[in-house]
Amino acid sequence: MKNFLFIAAIVATIPLFAQTPKYYTKAFNWNGSKNSNGLSMGINSNNNYIICGDTKDSTQRWSPFFLQVNANGDFVRVDRFPDSFYQPTPRQLVITPTKVFAGGFANDTAQSNTYAIQIETNGNLINWNVVDDSPFVNSGYTACRAHDGGFLIGGEIQPYDPPNGQPTHPYLVKLDSAGNKLWDTIYYQYGEPYAWIESIIPAPDNGYYALGSTKSSLWLHSDILLMHIAEDGSVLWDKIITFGTPEFGKEVIYTNDGGFLITGYINDDAVPHGYKGLIIKLNAERDIEWINDTAYISGMPHKCSIEVADGFIFGGGKYKTAPPYDIDACVTKLNPDGSLAWQRTHDRAAEDDYTYDMLSTPDGSYLLCGRTESYDDTLGVYRADVLLLKRWAYKPYRKPCS
Questions:
Q1: Average pLDDT for runs of 10 along the chain of length 402
Q2: Is 92 left (phi over 0), alpha (psi -120 to 50) or beta?
Q3: CB neighbours of 18 closer than 8 A, spacing ≥ 6?
Q4: How far lies 6's CA from each of 30, 75, 80, 305, in Å?
Q5: Rounded Cα distance, 146 and 181, in Å
Q6: Peptide bond preceding 324 in cis form (omega within 30 of 0)
Q7: Is 284 left (phi over 0), alpha (psi -120 to 50) or beta?
Q8: Are the C-beta atoms of residues 332 and 315 closer than 8 Å to each other?
Q9: Residues 248-277, buried b or exposed e (16+ Cβ, 10 A)?
Q10: What is the 3-state secondary structure (H, E, C) of the chain?
Q11: Which residues contact 67 (CB under 8 A, 6 or more apart)?
């Protein structure tokens, strides 16, 4: 069932320009929603932004939503698709000229399954389904458009393996353009005991690049895993990146020079919450050009990074401040050599803020979506709304990280 909600409350607005402002901070909720996450976004043919994520309704059940705003960040519409059995979370958005696709996972009372949903550009539901019919727990964390017009969803699966308990392995599902499952692949060669895929993108010539993590022992060590996957799901090559500490891969993007930019994080007991962000640049031969593990010394980049034409890199994530340890949304600019140009935090309502996805805008700015928390004085409760930040790529805004 689809719920089309016409009214959204814009909690906070900071416009600095009359037309297509280069900066704004907005938060969205609808019909009493009190817990929502903007997880992924894209731009459609009308130059409107579509944000997908999950939201909790009055029955305390999660359901997927698709929020649409215009170039000024003004609310256009929101569509929700609650289900009486599953509680789906769309993790990655893919926008085509004729429809919107999202891949993720759906929880029921017993387990999690890989999930896909498609809607028309007007918000009408085309279909949704649990695309994996396996009896084993599996989850989709990322998705991309396939070269043949279909879709790929990457994540993890927990096939039963008596000698080793229940390890997780990277998992890939191929769908046709209508959303029907064509095949799936379990990468048993990774994951003793745990491995998964967090990011997947089409390769410019053949196949796909997938990024994730592979653990060699329970909670003691993890390495970043980069794979080149062929059209049939087989592995053409892989690269494991390790520095002797637990490392985790979050996102891979293809850079202007034919290389790769990888974001992730490493465990570090010396920082307030035990981990810090990691940004790695690989050249076209997959050799490490530079590493920056100081830009997010007290935080982490999420699956949101972009490279602009002049080689500068922008990333979004979260930053944990000094006591009382408030979590702020964080935007970072790196120079082409990987050194820090600047970093700024964004605290909308003196509570925690997060960013989960990022894109370049047609006017030369960048847009981030996520989650913003606040205290509702009227209801006497804490709430979390969809956060939307727009910032200009060539000038920092608001306070530096401290």
A1: 44 48 90 89 93 90 95 95 93 96 91 94 94 85 97 92 70 96 94 89 94 75 93 96 87 93 84 78 95 75 75 84 76 90 85 90 89 84 91 59 38
A2: beta
A3: none
A4: 8, 9, 11, 32
A5: 13
A6: yes
A7: alpha
A8: yes
A9: bbbbbbebeeebbbbbbbbebeebeeebbb
A10: CCEEECCEEECCCCCCCCCCCCCEEEEEEECCCCEEEEEEEEECCCCCEEEEEEEECCCCCEEEEEEEECCCCCEEEEEECCCCCCEEEEEEEEECCCEEEEEEEEECCCCEEEEEEEEECCCCEEEEEECCCCCCCEEEEEEEECCCCCEEEEEEECCCCHHHCCCCEEEEEEECCCCCEEEEEECCCCCCCEEEEEEEEECCCCCEEEEEEEEEECCCEEEEEEEEECCCCCEEEEEEECCCCCEEEEEEEECCCCCEEEEEEEECCCCCCCEEEEEEEECCCCCEEEEECCCCCCEEEEEEEEECCCCCEEEEEEEECCCCCCEEEEEEEECCCCCEEEEEEECCCCCCEEEEEEEECCCCEEEEEEEEEEEECCCCEEEEEEEEEEEECCCCCCCECC
A11: 8, 28, 38, 50, 51, 52, 53, 75, 77, 78, 386
Question: How far apart (Å, rounded) are the C-alpha atoms in residues 369 and 145?
Answer: 21
Residue count of the chain: 402
Radius of gyration of the chain from Cα atoms? 20
Strand partners, 114: 105
Mention every residue, 6+ apart, whose C-beta is less than 8 A from residue 205: none
- Model-wide pTM > 0.85: yes
Sort 31 into a burial class: Cβ within 10 Å, 0-12 / 13-18 / 19+. middle
Cα 363 from Cα 344, distance rounded (Å): 21
Cβ atoms within 10 Å, residue 176: 13
Q: Are 213 and 198 in contact (CB under 8 A)?
A: yes
Please report the pLDDT score of residue 312 as a whole number. Answer: 87
Give the amino acid at 260: F
